[in-house]
Amino acid sequence: MHVFWFFSLVIIQLTLLDHQHCISAHNAVVHPPEASEYNGTLYAACKIKPNQPTSAGPKVYGTVLFKQDSPQGKLSVSIQLHGFDRDSAEAKAVHIHQFGDLSSSCASTRGHYNPNNVNHPQHPGDFGNFMTQDGRINAMLESEATLFGGHSVIGRAVVVHQQQDDLGQGGDASSLQNGNAGPRIGCCVIGITSAELWTKHTNKPKTIKRSRVN
Predict the structure, then answer these.
(1) Which residues are marked as active site?
(2) Who wins on pLDDT, 68 or 212?
(3) Which domain holds residue 13?
(4) Which of the two residues, 208 and 104, has the higher pLDDT score?
């Protein structure tokens, strides 16, 4: 009888350990395999195209590149856009939006990506304002967004706006949602990429940008 109870307890303990192992494995952060290819660094890219149907604003094209060395590291972002008015310098807002859905062009990306349900400009993809120069934006920044884990921005969208972001200081509800940045003039979907684009494009001089978003 004692032997029976002994083996019963052993089986129960082994079952609990196996269950705990399964929970641990289930909760583990799974990194995309591309990260191991670059010693833990993950790269992503997004090719901006004009909003369709084309608005009265500029026809903006370009590339937004991302690099993050680890889940705990800061996300570096390179923004390279062209197609703006060459005769004036204007501030243009750039944000990450919720859906990587371009079925209705930039409109179907929905609102700002806001995983923590906070006011603008506290969303992780609220990049702020960038001044055009000779019809271009060429800038580098660090962002609170991430390419890793459950809050990854991979598969979401970058949207370029026609106007300047008021950084939540506009005094109305829209200011706390989107900074009253105006029509969407360009957008793209963020996807994992190799290191080649980052290496190729980020060696060029950058204009360090923007209105600070804290």
Answers:
(1) 95, 97, 112, 120, 123, 126, 161, 184
(2) 68
(3) 1-30
(4) 104
